[in-house]
């Protein structure tokens, strides 16, 4: 199974520095967070931080990879849901969507610095996205072997599923009002994913 926790390249000290950066972003947002402030919060010199990350974009990349990886890993490592492989995949994807949508760092970035997410939506995939895609592809292949998931290129199917979830993570709040609740939209996501996987 692909690793979703970006810890192999980060020792305990570096994890503490990422914790400090996370706290800064939650407090003042990305634009007002500096490596100097991260160092101050971590209780180390600025040069200590610079030895690991030469600038804030590098640090943010590691922070987001760790954060989103841990969110998804919590879904993967949680209690296994009942049902067919396709049903378990739908449960994992919808759970991941809800967890990301509720994640305090994600919410803060969307509120204050949404442009940070644009490269991963418009230009390129990030490390955590690649890890998620690999995991979904693995689940699709498993479902195809049992006949629970339709035939087709598992790589393309996995990418289509992940693309389908993007709007539910980023834009669901724009579709919630007195007529349609967030839960109703989540139910629609379940229907969309279930039909996309059906043989």
> What would the principal axes of the Cα set say about the shape?
globular
- The name of the CATH architecture of the largest domain is Orthogonal Bundle
Enter the CATH topology name of the largest domain. Tetracycline Repressor, domain 2
Low-confidence stretches: 1-9
Succession of helices and strands: HHHHHHHHHH
Topology, pairings included?
Blueprint: H1 12-28, H2 35-42, H3 46-52, H4 56-77, H5 85-102, H6 104-112, H7 118-123, H8 127-146, H9 154-170, H10 182-197
In summary, what is this structure?
This protein is mostly helical.
Descriptive key words:
199 residues, mainly alpha, Arc Repressor Mutant, subunit A, Tetracycline Repressor, domain 2, 10 helices, 70% helix, 0% strand
Protein architecture, described:
The protein is mainly alpha-helical and 199 residues long. The protein has two domains: 8-54, Arc Repressor Mutant, subunit A (Orthogonal Bundle), CATH 1.10.10.60; 64-197, Tetracycline Repressor, domain 2 (Orthogonal Bundle), CATH 1.10.357. Helix content is 70%, strand content 0%. The chain is built from ten helices and no strands. Helix 1 (12-28) packs across helix 4 (56-77) and helix 4 crosses helix 5. The longest helix has 22 residues, at 56-77. It is globular.
């Amino acid at each position: 199974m692909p690793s979703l926790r970006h810890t192999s390249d980060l020792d305990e000290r570096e994890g503490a520095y990422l914790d400090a950066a996370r706290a800064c972003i939650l407090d003042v947002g990305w634009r007002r967070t500096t490596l100097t402030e991260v160092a101050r919060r971590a209780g180390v010199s600025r040069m200590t931080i610079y030895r690991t990350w030469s600038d804030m974009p590098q640090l943010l990349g590691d922070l987001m990879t760790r954060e989103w990886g841990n969110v998804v890993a919590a879904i993967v490592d949680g209690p296994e849901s009942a049902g067919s492989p396709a049903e378990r995949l739908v449960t994992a994807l919808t759970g991941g969507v809800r967890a990301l949508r509720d994640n305090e760092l994600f919410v803060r970035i969307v509120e204050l610095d949404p442009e940070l997410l644009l490269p991963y939506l418009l230009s390129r995939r990030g490390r955590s996205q690649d890890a998620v895609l690999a995991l979904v592809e693995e689940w699709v292949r498993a479902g195809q072997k049992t006949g629970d998931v339709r035939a087709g290129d598992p790589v393309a199917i996995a990418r289509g599923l992940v693309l389908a979830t993007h709007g539910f993570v980023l834009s669901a709040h724009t579709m919630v009002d007195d007529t349609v609740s967030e839960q109703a939209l989540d139910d629609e996501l379940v229907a969309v994913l279930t039909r996309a996987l059906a043989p």
